[in-house]
Amino acid sequence: MSSNNRHGTLPTLELENAVRAETGLRHIVGLDEAGRGALAGPVVAAAVILPLDAPHRLRYLREVNDSKQLTAKQRERLYILIVEHALSWGVGSSPAEDIDRMGIIPANVRAMEAALKQLDPPGEFLLIDGRMRLSNVSLPQQSVIRGDSLSLSIAAASILAKVTRDRHMIALESSYPQYGFGRHKGYCTRQHVVAIDRHGPCPTIHRYSFAPIRPPLL
């Protein structure tokens, strides 16, 4: 079950179709996250099952790509199409407090598990971006390096996760305008670091376990 997409091509259903041919399963879930490396805000995960038996619905998703390759306007437009035409989808998140308490990887796993629980119909097989494994989930699963550029289901999940998280960070702008969350979305930009130095980290929003907020070891 591997894909050899050429550089620059859009994600396809090659992986999903390979899983289906080998296992006979139809509800194949793409899983991805957004915000894993940010200094502030939650990590957000999304799960998407595409309608593999409905090509007339899949054609609306032909422009779906890795969220990092799209503009904010393109992501917003595709978000609407994915929500409308996916067989099922779900979004979960873990706040900064959980990330500080348990670490980013367990918090990421928890967000993915929460997204999976929202699927109706439920998933039967997981395609997970990167090297992630969900040890508490009994479903068969496959980790896919650069999955958001290979698998259409994972790419769709990457868009839902990214748009959901960006909307959340933009909404924080009105409450905490001094940090500029609406512009940098919590990532480590020079503007963001200057704001933290000037105002201190924002309780419940910033990740105190992440450098440069985390104090250096003595």
Strand and helix layout:
Blueprint: H1 14-23, E1 28-34, E2 43-49, H2 55-58, H3 72-85, E3 88-94, H4 96-102, H5 104-117, E4 125-129, E5 141-144, H6 147-150, H7 152-172, H8 181-184, H9 190-199
Explain what this protein looks like in three dimensions.
This protein is of the alpha/beta class and 218 residues long. It has one domain: Nucleotidyltransferase, domain 5 (2-Layer Sandwich), CATH 3.30.420. It has helices at 14-23, 55-58, 72-85, 96-102, 104-117, 147-150, 152-172, 181-184, 190-199, and strands at residues 28-34, 43-49, 88-94, 125-129, 141-144. Strands 3-2-1-4-5 form a five-stranded mixed beta sheet. β1 (28-34) and β2 form a beta hairpin. α3 packs across α7 and α4 crosses α5 (104-117). The longest helix is centred in the C-terminal third of the chain and has 21 residues, at 152-172.
Please report the first level of CATH classification, the CATH class: Alpha Beta
How many domains comprise the coordinates?
Answer: 1
- CATH topology annotation: Nucleotidyltransferase, domain 5
DSSP helical segment count:
9
Number of strands: 5
Radius of gyration: 18 Å
CATH level-four homologous superfamily name:
Ribonuclease H-like superfamily/Ribonuclease H
Q: What is the second-level CATH architecture?
A: 2-Layer Sandwich
Mean of pLDDT:
94
Low-confidence stretches: 1-7
**Structural class by sheet pairing and helices:** alpha/beta
Q: Largest beta sheet: what is the strand line-up? A: 3-2-1-4-5
Sheet with the most strands, sense and barrel status: 5 strands, mixed
Strand content: 5-15%
Helix content: 40-55%
